[in-house]
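Lab notebook page, bench 4
Experiment: in silico fold of construct C2
Operator: M.H.
Input chain length: 554 residues
Purpose: comparison with the prior construct
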Amino acid sequence: MLSRRGTWLLLLPVLIVLLGYVLYPSLRMVGAGLDGDQLRAVFSSWQSANVRALVNSVMISVYTVLGAGGLGTALAYLFFRYAFPLRRTLMALAALPLALPPLVGVLAFLFLYGESGILPRSLQALLGLEEVPFAFEGLWAVWLVHVYSFYVYFYLFVTAALRGFDGSLLEASADLGASPWMTFRRVMLPLLRPALVSAALLVFMVSMASFTAPLLFAGTEPFLTLQIYNYKTNGNLDLSATVSVVLTAICLAFLVLIEWSGRRQAVGAAKGTAAPPLPVRRGWARALALAGAVGLLLFLLLPIATVLLISFAQEGAWTYQILPARYTVANYLDLFRDPDVLQPILNSLQMATLATLGNVLFGVAAALFIVKGRLPGRGLVRLLAVLPFAIPGTVIAVNLIVAFNEPTVLTLGQVLVGSFWMVPLAYFIRHIPFVVRSTTAALERYDDRLSEASADLGASFGTTLRRVVLPIIAPGILAGTLLTFVAALGEFVASIMLYIYSNRPISVEILAHLRLYDFGGAAAYSVLLMLLIAAATLVVRRLGASEAGVEGLG
């Protein structure tokens, strides 16, 4: 436990950040958006663009839950229950979409399935058609991108629940003559319900907050996030704030439901040992499993392979052709030899690093207060720390614009709008929950007797924190650091609304190249972004393994 003085030393800066940079901008946005006349103007009739945007956002989110839930749950169950060809490879790759920055994933689908994409043009040539057989655009295209991006949440939640599943229940069900389908429906599904509910709520919320897929694929169909962006771009910040209030209210409601459902425990799911997967030995079943595995591998890897291929395309060499006519490595060489091309890379690294450092310092302090503090208000701090998770990136951008378009004490008398600091500040606010949550989980497993022993040996609070507490909770901190840095590197939603030309990040530059039809340049940036994220993942994992080894030796 922290001393009372130590608790105050942690609480003051934590409250300044949460109240000044999370709650205050949100309240300013609500004040600007909750106006009766504005609400009537925004939702004037059932045929208005904003009402259609609300319907589209909710409808796509519901369908995304169904599609992603079906795919993610089916994969988790099949990997858990059966052994078939390529199973281990698929298990290693199943979470791959989670590591893709949103803009890169959408870009991959555009290159592969868009009207001018490789697959439609290939089918057109193969079938001798005058036009492509399908156009990857509109609501169904947004839905398919969402399913690809968000099924991972269901897969991870259900996989985690299945790890502790009691295999004797499956044996008992089979002994009683139940079919595999009845066993799944009557035995497994009730025990998986908490995981499914949590995943469904999370997917609905992140789908409602989606911006990139609607921006590139929705065409003329409105979405709430697009309406916020369009109003802001057209200079109508009040109407942008009004739509932001509506979107935030929906996401907050689902955050409350997620927090509530997360406290429910699945009864009986953690006893016994998991049943070994059943081998698929029959010829037709094994062939069917192999075909399904290959199809899933193509679904997962083709978008990434397409981006890699297009990254070598020479500018202007991919117009009406199925594949680019000419290839070059100049797209990659320009990333480092052309100062204008290199600058967005340096900007992203700089801003992601600044935001991550801030998140680590704040996250550790907030987690220590939440878990080990002695003062009341820990529940409030926990709630405010998770609040940014429910606020979409477009809304965070509007919050900051409304709050800091004039000098305040929080900005040291400066106007932040139009400055370099708006983008890293948005990154910092968006990713506050990552380090706080991961560090809180590590601290909740920490044994306070270690700190008491350190104090009995004469160590000060600072020495105990540095030599005892931090080394033990380091894996949790490193996990949050990884998530923060990776998410900040690929951040697009807040960036597109807050950047200035001098600090434009990689994601904004990708969109700029795409709009100039420089597909090779856009894809080269995307590949570099994926490599940076992969490198960050490997570095932090190695550091985490090193820390774990030090702990074991100690």
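Observations: The first strand starts at residue 82 and ends at 83. Confidence is low (pLDDT under 50) at residues 265-270, 545-554.
Next step: discuss at group meeting.
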